[in-house]
Amino acid sequence: MNKNLQRLAKDTAIYGLSSIVGRFLNYLLVPLYTAKMTAASGGYGIITHMYAITALLLVLLTFGMETTFFRFANKEGEDPSRVFSTALIGISSTATLFFVAVLLLLTPISRVLGYADNPQYVWVMALIVAIDAFRAIPFAYLRQQKKALKFASLQLLNIGVNIALNCIYYLALDGHDPGYAFYINLVCSALITLCLYREIANIRHGFDKTLFHRMLAYSWPIVILGIAGILNQVADKILFPYIYEGADAKMQLGIYGACAKIAMIMAMITQAFRYAYEPFVFGKTRDKDNDTMQALAMKYFVIFTLLAFLCVVGWIDLLKHIISPDYWEGLHVVPIVMAAEIMMGIYFNLSFWYKLEDKTIWGAVFSGIGCAVLIAINIIFVPRYGYTACAWAGFAGYAVAMTLSYIVGQKYHPIKYPIRAITTYLLLTALIFASMNYLRTTTPQWLSLTANTLLITLFAALIILTQRKKKNTLDPHS
């Protein structure tokens, strides 16, 4: 494998370890929450709803500065330290103003969100968002400096403390209040921010107003892109309580949110890939083989996400025990959500043509159209089909954004992606998926699990055999 790809693979492995292990450890909270908060109580629905809202707010408050930081820190003539301090001061000022505004308008905001009886949920989550927005830039700095180990260590520390405190409240103290999940999150966010003091100290380089204006000019389309992108992930969960016609909206949302957690292994892989890939690509802007590297990365990303898809689908009868049995009725959405996450990862890979060409407005257009499709499907079909429509809406939204980005990208920045190789793996995955579904419904569980494991092993073996022959070539089509 090429040295650049080896470096990318190494960093992805480190980020992936923190992401996958961290997410796995966080999975331990899902059975804990679903055991302590039954589906009928709506407690997990509250957690799902609030975290969906905060995910959207975090995109707004970070204002695309992570990607913008990478772009400007690698630009000729720019001082990376000044870029960092300017971004950090700008984000911290915005985050502070946001939290103050929430405190001043707490009562009406709580009423609109449906938490008039629990306004503490709102101000606590607002403070968490403000802190997380602030620390996003120091974490981006760690990635830019190739300090993957420190990045991973802090992420795992955050998760470890979070799990420990949750276990104390929900197990040792036998608590049931969903609000304590938010209080614990606040403690963890504050702790990790303190651990970033060395990076934050670089703020001494000051705030460059002219530079910040140039950064804003680059980042505002990314914000629109980010808003549309995060809405593709959380709009269904935000809208569901308002458009679902049944009286058990929080219960249904909790079922959907719990089952979607099983599918989040795909989000882990995509996130790990993004953490390593973004600074990697921006750092190779001037290299002649950059487009070839992107094509190769696309092929390997698709291959390994398809393998992960088959693992989850094939072992769903084991993985479903992550959540309480009264949530199992929603398991049919898991493959749909995973397929949507794969397309989101492909879309992320395709997005670099407009980022490198400084035409980020295209990202806003693609994501905006995809988001409009998602919201429309939710509004039209959720009242009739419930959370199943949410899953298909996400699938459709990502499919549209991905397709548009590929078509337009081939016009403005053509890259020869290995379409034939990717299509072959997709068709093989579809065939194995259909076989797994058939076996699951027609054979005993032990037999279907055995057969599925064999199919997964054969797929992995095929990957190893075909790629081993091409390990020394940079041809992504091989």
Tell me what you see in this structure.
By secondary structure, the chain is mainly α. It has one domain. The chain is built from 21 helices and no strands. It has helices at residues 3-27, 29-36, 43-62, 65-73, 80-104, 106-113, 119-144, 148-172, 179-195, 197-200, 209-243, 249-262, 265-283, 290-314, 316-319, 334-350, 352-356, 361-385, 387-412, 419-442, 445-468. Helix 11 crosses helix 12 and helix 11 (209-243) runs antiparallel to helix 19. It is globular. The mean pLDDT is 85.
Task: Give a topology summary.
Layout lengths: L2 H25 L1 H8 L6 H20 L2 H9 L6 H25 L1 H8 L5 H26 L3 H25 L6 H17 L1 H4 L8 H35 L5 H14 L2 H19 L6 H25 L1 H4 L14 H17 L1 H5 L4 H25 L1 H26 L6 H24 L2 H24 L10
Brief summary:
The chain is built from 21 helices and no strands. With 478 residues, the protein is mainly alpha-helical. Helix 7 (119-144) packs parallel to helix 9 and helix 14 (290-314) runs antiparallel to helix 21 (445-468).
Keywords:
478 residues
- Total strand count, please? 0
Discrete helix count: 21
Please state the average pLDDT score: 85
Largest sheet: none
Query: Which percent bin holds the helix content?
Result: over 70%
Structural class: mainly alpha
Query: Which H/E pattern describes the elements?
Result: HHHHHHHHHHHHHHHHHHHHH
Q: Unreliable segments (pLDDT under 50, ≥5 consecutive)? A: none
Radius of gyration: 22 Å
Strand-residue proportion: under 5%
Number of structural units classed as domains: 1
Distance between the termini: 13 Å
Shape: globular
